[in-house]
Amino acid sequence: MGGIAVCPGSFDPITYGHLDIIKRAAKVFEQVYVVVLNNSSKKPLFTVEERIQLIEDVTKDLKNVKVDSFQGLLMDYAKSVNANAVIRGLRAVSDFEYEMQITSMNRVLNDEVETFFIMTNNQYSFLSSSIVKEVAKYNGDISELVPDTVEKALKNKFQ
């Protein structure tokens, strides 16, 4: 397909579900920007810089993936990197309504950028960063949910 795609999210922290979507997008697009949202309405566990470092670490083998952050409108960021696509992961039907609203608004802001939805692998359909943080907080086993470096970072946060 080619082109440049933006894969936005809070990634607090990145999980195997996120990584599944990123790897699959990297197979389709020439360049994929994984972009950490700096959302002031959320209270993240990890700083933007920490999230960027974790994502860079787990995507280092994907040569066409770059990691960045932004604050503001996604369509402004997409324009700044000449992206023609936005990648969004869907876990379940419940995600679709919210994603449809966001996609419709983004189309109003810039109708030259298409949104592509990628269904997550079934083994990750239940997985969210919130669930991972909750399990990690109580010393539960998250080794099958996140890469090693993320598991270690979570353990350090909750010690």
From TrEMBL:
Primary localization: cytoplasm
Catalytic activity: (R)-4'-phosphopantetheine + ATP + H(+) = 3'-dephospho-CoA + diphosphate
SUPFAM superfamilies (alphabetical): Nucleotidylyl transferase
Signal peptide, first to last residue: none
Enzyme class: transferase
CC per GO annotation: cytoplasm
Cofactor needs: Mg(2+)
Similarity-based family: Belongs to the bacterial CoaD family.
Descriptive protein name: Phosphopantetheine adenylyltransferase
Organism: Sporosarcina globispora (Bacillus globisporus)
Gene that encodes it: coaD
